[in-house]
Amino acid sequence: MAVRELRYFGDPVLKSVADPVTRFDKATEALVTDLLDTVEGPGRAGLAAPQIGVGLRAFSYHVEDQVGYVLNPELVELSEETHEIDEGCLSVPELWFATRRAKRAVVRGVDLRNEPVTVHGEGLMAQCLQHEADHLDGILYLDRLAANRKREALREARQRDWFWRR
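Above: the chain sequence. Below: its structure as C-alpha cells.
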C-alpha cells in the first residue's frame, strides 16, 4: 500500500489510548500493510498505528530478521530483570535517552484472521514490544524517564522543528 506520514510528539493522537480492532476487513488489512511498509525504513524497529494517525490497537515490527504485526496486543509477560537501554522513537526523532525496560517481553494479540498470535522478545525485540505497546496506551518513552531526564527531553523536543504545535 503506502509508506505513511509520521505523527510527532505534541500531536494529541500520540497521547490517546487506542481503540481495539473490532473489524477484520479490507480496511484493517490496508492498515497492516501500511504499518509493515512504513516500518521498513532504515533505523526503524517498530511502528504503532497512532504514529501514523490511526487510533487503533495495532503495531508492526522489524527487528533484525523478525518482521510482523500484532492486532490488539497485550503485554502478558515482562522479566523481572531490567536494564537501561538507549531508546529513541520515530515520533520523537533525533532524541535518544536511556530508558529502563524489561530484558524479556511477551505480547499476545491476534492477526488479520482474528487468530491468536504470540511474540516473544529479548533485548532489542523486548524493548520494541514494550515501546509499541506503550504507544497504544498513549505513553511515549519520554514518559518513562526519570524526572530530571524527562524535563531535559521535553525541553529538547519542544525546541525541534518537527514538534507538533496547535
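The first strand starts at residue 46 and ends at 48.
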